[in-house]
Design brief:
Two copies of one chain form a homodimer.
Chain A: H1 10-21, E1 25-28, H2 32-38, H3 42-53, E2 59-62, H4 65-68, H5 71-87, E3 91-98, H6 102-112, E4 123-126, H7 136-141, E5 144-149, H8 156-159, H9 169-184, E6 192-196, E7 215-217, H10 227-233, E8 241-245, H11 247-250, H12 256-274
Parallel strand pairs in A: 1-2, 1-8, 2-3, 3-4, 4-5, 5-6, 6-7, 7-8
C-alpha cells in the first residue's frame, strides 16, 4: 500500500479550515423526518445545505444512506452536494462505510476517492469487518476513516472481542492504523483516520495520539455524546478530532440563517473545549 | 425485531428455483476488466446479463460497487438490472454489505428492501462490524445475509477474535443468527442468512445447520474455492447454500449462449455435489 499523492494532505487542509471555522463536522443526513420538517424534497435540502455549509464549517459529512434511499435520483443529488461543497471550499467526508474484499474495494474507492471518481469526496468512511489489511485500495486513492469504535452499544460484541495477543479488535485497529500511518506519512498526521465514538467510557487502554491520524467522533447531540465527552475522549490529541453532529443542527433549519447560527454556537463551544 | 410479512419467504422461493435451475448464484460484477473484455458499456452489460440470467439461474448477485463506480448513472443501470431480473423470475441478492447504526440502517433498508424501495432487491448482504443487534431495520423489511466468515484471509483479524465467553466473533454470529431465526420463523428456514466463505478450513466448531438460515458462499472460482470445498463446508445443510461465482462465469461472455453454457456446466456440477 502506498498513499495517494497530494500537494496538500487532507490533514493539512483540515488544519487550515479548523483554524478558520473550528473543528465541527456538519452531518448532512436528510432523513424523512428532516425533509418533512423542512417541507422540502431532497434537492431542496441540497440547495439549503450548500448555502449553509459554505463559509461556515470546515467539513461536512453526508451520510450516503439518506441519499441512496431515493434511488439513483438520490445519488445524483448526493453527487451535486459533494461537488458543490468542494467548490465552496468545504471538505467532504462521505460517510459510506463501505468495506469488502480487495477487488471490490478497488471499485468502491474508484467510485468515491481520487481523480476521476464520479462522486469525488475528500475522504470517506470504511468498515473493517473484512479486515483492515483489505482496505489498501482506498488508502491508495485517498484518506479514509476506518470504523474502529462505533458510537452504538451493539458494536461491542465485535469491537471488544480479543485476538490471540489479548488485544481487543479496536485496540488492534488503533495499533495497525498507527503502523500504517507511520509508514505512509512518517512524522506527519497520516492518511488513515479512525471513526471513534466518544459515547462509551474513555479508552484508558488506547494511545490515540500515537495513531498519528485524524478521528471522526460521531454521535454528538442526538446520539448522546456531549462536547465535554469529546474533549475527555480526545484529550491526548484535541486538534485531530472532527466532532460530528447532524440531527441536533438540522433541527435549526430550514433557514440558512438558523442553520449557520446553530453551527456557529456548537463550533464555538467545541473550539473553547478543544483549543 | 419482527420479520417482514411475506406470502412466500425468500427461502421458499429459493427452494423452488433451486429445484429447477440448481443452486448456483450468478455474480454480476461488471468490473472494468469485464467491460473491456466484452467491449460494452455498463448498460450493454446489463442487457446481456438480463438475457443470460432469465430462465437460467435461481439467483443473481450484483455487486453494488461495480455499479456505484459509474456514479448515479451506474446506480440507474443497477436499478434496471434488479427490476429486470425480478420481472424475469430471477431472485436478486444485492451484494451491498451495508451496515451502520440503527437509524442509518433504516434508510439503507428502505433503499433496497421491501415495498416502496427504489431499488427493490429480494435480499441483500449486510456487514456487522457495528453489531448484529443493530441490523434489525433490515430484517424487518426483508431477508438479509450477514457477513459472518468472509472468503478473504485479511478478515481473520476481526472474525476470529474471541468474546468474553470464549467464542469467536463468527461463532457468536452463527449462534445469534440462529436464535433470531428460531424466534422469527420457528420450524422453518429463517430470514437471516450468513455470508460464509468456504475457502478456509471447514468449521468443525460451528453447527451451520442449527443456524436455520441460508448461506451465501462467495469465492467460487477466481477467489480459490472449488465446488468440492463448498460441498465439504456445507455438508450438514447442502440445500441451504447459494454458491456464488462471478469472474469465472463472466469470462464466458459476451455472448448470451456462452454465458448460459458456462452457468449450466457449473450449476450441474454443483447440483451433483450438493444434491
Amino acid at each position: 500500500v502506498t498513499a495517494a499523492p497530494s500537494a496538500e494532505t487532507f490533514a493539512e487542509r483540515f488544519a487550515k479550515r479548523r483554524a478558520e471555522f473550528g473543528p465541527l463536522c456538519l452531518g448532512l443526513d436528510p432523513s424523512d423526518d428532516v425533509l418533512g420538517a423542512w417541507g422540502v424534497d431532497l434537492d431542496g435540502f441540497v440547495d439549503i445545505a450548500l448555502d449553509a455549509a459554505a463559509g461556515s464549517v470546515a467539513v461536512v459529512k453526508p451520510q450516503s444512506a439518506f441519499y441512496e434511499r431515493h434511488g439513483w435520483q438520490g445519488v445524483r443529488s448526493l453527487s451535486r452536494l459533494v461537488s458543490g461543497c468542494r467548490e465552496g471550499g468545504v471538505l467532504v467526508l462521505l460517510d459510506a462505510k463501505r468495506g469488502d474484499v480487495g477487488s471490490t474495494n478497488e471499485a468502491y474507492a474508484a467510485a468515491y476517492l481520487g481523480d476521476g471518481a464520479p462522486i469525488h469526496a475528500d475522504a470517506m468512511t470504511v468498515t473493517p469487518y473484512l479486515g483492515l489489511a483489505a482496505m489498501g485500495a482506498y488508502i491508495e486513492r485517498g484518506p479514509v476513516f476506518v470504523v474502529t469504535r462505533s458510537s452504538n452499544p451493539e458494536g461491542r460484541a465485535v469491537q471488544a472481542a480479543r485476538g490471540p495477543d489479548g488485544l481487543t479488535v479496536e485496540q488492534r485497529m488503533v495499533l495497525d492504523i498507527g503502523a500504517l500511518n507511520a509508514r505512509l506519512a512518517p512524522g506527519a498526521v497520516g492518511p488513515v483516520g479512525g471513526v471513534f465514538g466518544p459515547t462509551h467510557a474513555p479508552p484508558d487502554d488506547m494511545d490515540l495520539a500515537a495513531m498519528n491520524g485524524l478521528f471522526l467522533a460521531p454521535g454528538l447531540g442526538t446520539q448522546g455524546a456531549t462536547p465535554a465527552d469529546v474533549a475527555a475522549c480526545f484529550a491526548a490529541c484535541p486538534d485531530r478530532v472532527l466532532p460530528s453532529a447532524s440531527r441536533s443542527l438540522l433541527a435549526a433549519g430550514p433557514t440558512v440563517a438558523g442553520l449557520r447560527a446553530a453551527v456557529r454556537a456548537l463550533s464555538d463551544e467545541l473550539s473553547s473545549l478543544l483549543g
